[in-house]
């Protein structure tokens, strides 16, 4: 049964033979084994081994788009203010929900690590906020003051994006040259399953933290962003009239640099990926400037930077210390009117247990360039398995 497979998976994770794989940065792969074992007993046929979890493109299905679901509130973040004043309204509105999300992380840590694991994690993080670059060091301390949440816990919430997230980002161009940039955010996958409502508990609590910002300086709008309350960095944003960006994790790319961070802090000129995004959006006025910055900034962890411009878009595949690959939209090529990025290098196959790139591309091709709209791309990002 699926419960037997889960026991086997957990035993494997705890067995000494798995430690070498963990030390080689393979923990994400080991964790991905658990849902695959759980799925092993689902209803299936030889042609459809994943059962109800198999790929299911919704490009030709009735539209799921609902204009009423769009969030209308935007929080103004004035970069000219002191940190306490910058984040006061956000902390008042979201402080309790941020504490709830951190509580789920604690449950996860205690479940896997046993009694005392949570305290050990916080001890490991003690003083780590002082290793952050400014203005983030001052801002995270201000947010702790405003919410009453331990600064170590807020640091962990900010670190989570460097450690765990699974996403799909798309930049696509319609026949008129209009560019659309979309992404989903499967953040929290594998962290505490809620048996009552059938979802990952951290995913549910983080959904309650989704917030929209308008960053301003000198009385002018710099960029608009969607992220999670409590995060000081940026995950998804647009600099109006210039460029858009979203960032996806690059699985297995952060173990060495994260270990070094816990041991000695950030290296000189090194930056969290989410903070690098904010720096880019704050200081780069054009797509060309943003592209140059993101190709070379030194990061704490590798990542994929998906960027759109008024003329197209690209995916930049980053190692912590430089660019490994870059893929541009090229309408002269077959299916060259879009780029789609999950969490694996575009020129390498996804691992078997988490193949989202092939289904995602097939669904985009089924949609076709003629149907590139908000509604059309929303259908693609609502399709399994790209929507975990």
TrEMBL record:
Key word Nucleotide-binding present: no
Signal peptide: 1-20
EC number: 3.5.1.23
Alphabetical keyword list: Glycoprotein, Hydrolase, Lipid metabolism, Lysosome, Signal, Zymogen
Family matches, as InterPro entries: Acid_ceramidase_N, CBAH/NAAA_C
Positions of the Acid ceramidase N-terminal domain: 73-121
Localization per record: Lysosome
Top class in the EC scheme: hydrolase
A biological process from GO: lipid metabolic process
All copies of domain Choloylglycine hydrolase/NAAA C-terminal, residue ranges: 167-309
Keyword hit for Glycoprotein: yes
GO MF term set: N-acylsphingosine amidohydrolase activity
Pathway given in the UniProt record: Lipid metabolism
Gene3D superfamilies: Penicillin V Acylase, Chain A (3.60.60.10)
Name of the protein this chain belongs to: ceramidase
């Amino acid at each position: 049964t699926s419960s037997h497979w889960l026991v086997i998976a957990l035993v494997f994770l705890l067995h000494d033979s798995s430690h070498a794989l963990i030390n080689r940065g393979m923990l994400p792969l080991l964790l991905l084994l658990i849902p695959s074992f759980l799925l092993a007993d689902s209803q299936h046929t030889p042609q459809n081994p994943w059962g109800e979890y198999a790929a299911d493109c919704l490009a030709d299905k009735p539209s799921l788009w609902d204009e009423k679901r769009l969030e209308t509130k935007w929080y103004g973040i004035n970069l000219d203010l002191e940190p306490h004043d910058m984040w006061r309204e956000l902390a008042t509105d979201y402080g309790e929900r941020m504490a709830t999300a951190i509580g789920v992380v604690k449950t996860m840590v205690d479940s896997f690590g046993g009694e005392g694991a949570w305290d050990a994690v916080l001890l490991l993080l003690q003083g780590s906020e002082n290793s952050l670059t400014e203005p983030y060091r001052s801002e995270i301390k201000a947010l702790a003051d405003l919410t009453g949440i331990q600064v170590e816990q807020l640091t962990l919430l900010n670190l989570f994006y460097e450690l765990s997230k699974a996403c799909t980002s798309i930049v696509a161009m319609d026949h008129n040259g209009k560019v659309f940039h979309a992404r989903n955010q499967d953040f929290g996958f594998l962290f505490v399953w809620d048996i009552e409502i059938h979802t990952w508990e951290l995913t549910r609590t983080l959904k309650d933290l989704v917030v929209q910002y308008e960053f301003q300086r000198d009385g002018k709008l710099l960029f608009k962003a969607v992220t999670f309350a409590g995060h000081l960095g940026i995950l998804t944003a647009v600099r109006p009239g210039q460029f858009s960006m979203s960032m996806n994790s690059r699985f297995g790319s952060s173990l060495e640099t994260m270990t070094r961070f816990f041991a000695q802090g950030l290296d000189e000129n090194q930056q969290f990926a989410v903070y690098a995004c904010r720096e880019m959006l704050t200081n780069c006025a054009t797509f060309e400037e943003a592209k140059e910055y993101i190709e070379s900034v030194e990061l704490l962890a590798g990542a994929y930077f998906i960027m759109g411009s008024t003329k197209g878009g690209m995916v930049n595949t980053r190692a912590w210390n430089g660019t490994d690959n870059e893929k541009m939209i090229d309408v002269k090529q077959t299916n060259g009117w879009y780029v789609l990025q999950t969490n694996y290098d575009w020129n390498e196959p996804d691992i078997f247990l988490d193949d989202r790139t092939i289904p995602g591309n097939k669904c985009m091709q089924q949609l076709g360039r003629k149907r590139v709209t908000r509604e059309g791309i929303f259908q693609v990002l609502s399709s399994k398995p790209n929507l975990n």
